[in-house]
Sequence to fold (1342 residues):
Amino acid sequence: MPETTIESCEVKRLEILSENGDADESLAPKFTDSQIRELYETLVRMRTFDGRALNLQREGRIGTYASILGQEAAQLGTAYALEKRDWIFPSFRENGVFVARGYEMYMILQYWGGDERGIKVPEDINMFPISIPVGTHMLHAVGAAMAAKYKEDKTVTLTYFGDGGTSEGDFHEAMNFAGVFQAPVVFICENNQWAISVPRARQTAAMTIAQKAFAYGFEGIQVDGNDIFAVYKATKSAVDKARSGGGPTLIECHTYRMSDHTTADDASRYRTKEEVEAWKEKDPILRLKRYMEKKGLWADSYGKQVDEDAKALVDEAVKKAEAVEKPKPQDMLVYTYKELTPRQKKQMGDF
Amino acid sequence: MPETTIESCEVKRLEILSENGDADESLAPKFTDSQIRELYETLVRMRTFDGRALNLQREGRIGTYASILGQEAAQLGTAYALEKRDWIFPSFRENGVFVARGYEMYMILQYWGGDERGIKVPEDINMFPISIPVGTHMLHAVGAAMAAKYKEDKTVTLTYFGDGGTSEGDFHEAMNFAGVFQAPVVFICENNQWAISVPRARQTAAMTIAQKAFAYGFEGIQVDGNDIFAVYKATKSAVDKARSGGGPTLIECHTYRMSDHTTADDASRYRTKEEVEAWKEKDPILRLKRYMEKKGLWADSYGKQVDEDAKALVDEAVKKAEAVEKPKPQDMLVYTYKELTPRQKKQMGDF
Amino acid sequence: MATMNMVHAINLALKEEMQRDKDVVILGEDVGRDGGVFRVTEGLLEQFGEARVMDTPLAESGIVGTAIGMAVYGLKPVAEIQFMGFIYPAADQIFNHAARIRSRSRGRYSVPMVIRTPYGVGIRSPEHHSESSEAHFCHMPGIKVVVPSSPYYAKGLLISAIRDPDPVIFLESTRLYRMIKEDVPEGEYTVPLGKARIVQEGGQVTVISWGSMLQKTIKAIEGVDAEVIDLMTLNPFDEEAIFNSVKKTGRAVVVYEAPKTGGFGAEISASIAEDAMLYLKGPIKRVTGYDAVLPLPKLEDYYMPSTERIRKAIDEVMQY
Amino acid sequence: MATMNMVHAINLALKEEMQRDKDVVILGEDVGRDGGVFRVTEGLLEQFGEARVMDTPLAESGIVGTAIGMAVYGLKPVAEIQFMGFIYPAADQIFNHAARIRSRSRGRYSVPMVIRTPYGVGIRSPEHHSESSEAHFCHMPGIKVVVPSSPYYAKGLLISAIRDPDPVIFLESTRLYRMIKEDVPEGEYTVPLGKARIVQEGGQVTVISWGSMLQKTIKAIEGVDAEVIDLMTLNPFDEEAIFNSVKKTGRAVVVYEAPKTGGFGAEISASIAEDAMLYLKGPIKRVTGYDAVLPLPKLEDYYMPSTERIRKAIDEVMQY
Ligand SMILES: Cc1ncc(C[n+]2csc(CCOP(=O)(O)OP(=O)(O)O)c2C)c(N)n1
Ligand SMILES: Cc1ncc(C[n+]2csc(CCOP(=O)(O)OP(=O)(O)O)c2C)c(N)n1
Ligand SMILES: [Mg+2]
Ligand SMILES: [Mg+2]
Fold:
């Protein structure tokens, strides 16, 4: 028995909705018209929020902000596949996921405005705060999933990270624990082709991110991340699988970061206009709009209304965010431990 | 274009020398008779050393020791494929590799006897000291390989680690950097089925360790780690590839830890006698001996002589190790930095 | 009431807490089938099953990171790091996450987790098996650090740590594991976190230490009118007990086995120098490990603060 | 001689050292094409090529771990960690390897490496972007820690750090990056490691600080007869300079922006309390960050030691 094949793996890519709005109906999720509209309206709300946040930053009204432009379908298609009881562990770029989950928009602005109270997640939303250290929070999702399994809760956890995040050791440990403990967790990589200035090809020599799942004994799949049907479908089936005891899945949403990395970045230093231009035609919202047109779900008046409604909601959120009172300096101490330490009590006296 | 296959991977296993000593000659490395003898004699020396070290520990003459019993072919077959200019980055279980590379055996004993001077690698051996933190030193091998590439040195680095070591984040980062920078490095996993009490199946849900290379865009292969021909052949071709600019390779040596984890461990707590027994027939030295018998390279007198020579060498090493003077307490301070700090100078006065 | 060593006392605390509260789970390398390399978790897998006593892959960040997720979800994980020298791969999870999640979420989430780990010099182990790096974790708001010095306190402190709403690093001296036997009650009792203990009252000098150094200290003070403080919780530490004692004695010696520079004892000295200075008669001495990489066994006895070195420092401060 | 800010001074040091010695290489996240998120490595990729200025995958342990391998092999890597808050994933490589390889190999191998990283409060950044965790690295024999307080010293210290035979953590205050401009000579000059600098002589009180806190200190002492010490190297630190000053002034204040408990300033206080106690007139005060998770921008100014808080401490010790 000389050289034999003992294992093998195929990496698939799922695409359902084409750039010009045609869907492969044999694969498309069975959405009702009102669901399609809900998806579209949410996408617009996400984008409107995002654009406003960028403006607020430029005007010095909030701090550094990380845009989601171009990644709306990847964020909504995944979040939409979850139930309310399921848990989300986001990175720092999931502003759209927060919006999609019904998180108060003014609080997201408050957070990026430099006030931690904006990220005090309300009791009725199963979502973890933004995690800035890249690649580290997936472990929390796995641990929560292990706990859910232990408690026989039938909840699923889902965690987001970027292509850059896959290079951190914690990504590896999270994936490995998930495989070993068959944790009900879904890993969503928003592969937006860049980690600040580092292109995807320099992040890993693997052809895809999806194939990394093979190293941990579970399935990985790549989807067109600007195709909300493909994103949703892959996520839904991963969530169902996790919920029914089938263990973890890795989903690579192949998408693109249309903006600078954050408002502190200038992407023109390291990538070409042409590259960005080429992705404009792949826009996730445009694509859904074209689909709706073809399906007779579109009217320009509808589109206008959706835009205006989104704008009004965001306007209100901005107003609310800016009306929030400044935090008190003491606030910085009180959440360190359940109770103040003796030394902290003395330090409170400084204010 | 719905679901398409965009990447694929096959994991191979290489076996050349069977348990009863038959070799697939079409695959077998072209060793001369004297090389075969050299391999056998080195294997015996490794095992003799190892057995003696275990005894010395039992007698309280050295400290905790990690046995290589059963893993001799994995250690020699890999080391034998290197040139003198190549670099080795070992874990804590490569005592056999040290022996194979001509490292003074008395110094290995001195090290395990609790004296760091035993691991001061002589200038003419390109080998790094033993690294106890599991999974961490592969990064050094990758960095050294990157440096060699930068200096256009044409040297290759090779690093050893266990199945347990593949779970650490640093393994991931080392593999990933190696892939991205196409570093001339060979990763040797001695998959001996156990990480202390944790069985291989609980270390990762992947079917093989070899397949993990796919996640980093380079080749991985499993070999029968008790088959010195297969180990050598796979390593030699990985080393040649690395030297000629072909980048890294992962080799999984599928073998078995016949002893306790270390002398501080009691493996009977967590694994069955039957499992251990089953691996006895796969012994790497026995296998080579059977091959030599079939090839007419064997005589009982030869076998006896080899045993005696090994014993004599090890006897001498033990004597030499035990004749070494105790280190001076000051020694603990002098190698912290190139020069003593002012505070350390004061501290030297304590002794 | 039974007489037992620290390994058994800790094992008992774990067992009783697991019986009491099914949200208490254990995870780590070799904690299950093997019962831990020091046998601290022996018998727990058999009693509570694989779902509650989890042998994990060999990955410290993974252990702590998943434990954080479990804690956030409502469990009370007790994670084991096999030796303190191997805690660094988990440093990011401890510093950037465990310590900060309550603060980051303004109290919405918390991390009621314990990280147990053996520490300290004295059992002739290989490199990285004898470190005391408590100082790092004491310089991290949001983390508590606890170090018991005997079986009785080990059990009572561990129960408190498990019930504590915040993350606790629980350090177990390998040297003490089997050194002392003591009466340890069966059943529930707690020793409060954040409180030091006056081991012996005295009037002339205050000697502060913790863990395995406490035992050395007790030997070193023979014949001296010393007040001995066992700090027990290093973060947050009991300033008041220290200041009260120093106000009485006017002299202080701090003993710790980590490298001198930047060790946690520096904080104790600095605190005294800041808030109880006016009561001092002379310098505050520290008896510590050296500013060196901890040597292998042949030299470890020279590295570790000895009774003689502690006594010498006491004699020195007594001259003022 | 040109006038420049700290970003440019550091850039110049890197450029000149790379010109001088082709074993000097740079690696880190975004250090190449982007020139670093603070532009500290701007232009170096263009000048020295991809083989010497390496954009790495996003993995801090990988950056430091491979840099160790390079250093051992004979290069002099200058690794960048994008922000000090992200250094912890590399803690194990720094503590268990970089710091110990010379010792472990009894001098056969060494790690002549620099880890540059921006630190400190003051530029309204997101969470984890403003930490000062120098204390951890000062409690690690085998590691040096250097913190410049101005462009001139940044260049001279970085050149020394690159040429130093041991691993150096080089901390760059984000607040200082573009705050001060100063005359910085072109070409080689070095500022020695391990030596503090008397910024201003004085007779009544010694104020010790480093990095960005030095600038605050200088403002705070206006009208006081204070001796100001810029520590510059924290590990190993210049005890002698501190003791000499305290012997003269009899009073000491230490300023640092990390959380108070266990910060490196505790070591300074403790050292004074141990070896220069008899010269002190009163308590040694510390002005520090709070024992809290560093707040987001809305509260960061309250967290950071202010000129007023420093002045208040000086006034307090002057009462003795
Ligand atoms: C551990 C860590 N290292 C570095 C950073 C700085 N940083 C923030 S985002 C980022 C790039 C992230 O890239 P990716 O994971 O692809 O996510 P994306 O920004 O594209 O959404 C870096 C390097 C960080 N936040 N955390
Ligand atoms: C980072 C780290 N964690 C834990 C340990 C303790 N430890 C020493 S060896 C070992 C198991 C190693 O298993 P494996 O990698 O398979 O190597 P083997 O012992 O089988 O050769 C463990 C957990 C360590 N040395 N380093
Ligand atoms: Mg990205
Ligand atoms: Mg193993």
Remarks:
- Chain D touches chain B through 46 residues (CB under 8 Å).
- Residues A 93, 132-134, 161-165, 192, 194-196, 257, 261; D 29, 58, 82, 86, 89 surround thiamine diphosphate (ligand 1) (CB under 6 Å).
- The longest strand of chain D covers residues 252-259.
- The radius of gyration of chain D is 19 Å.
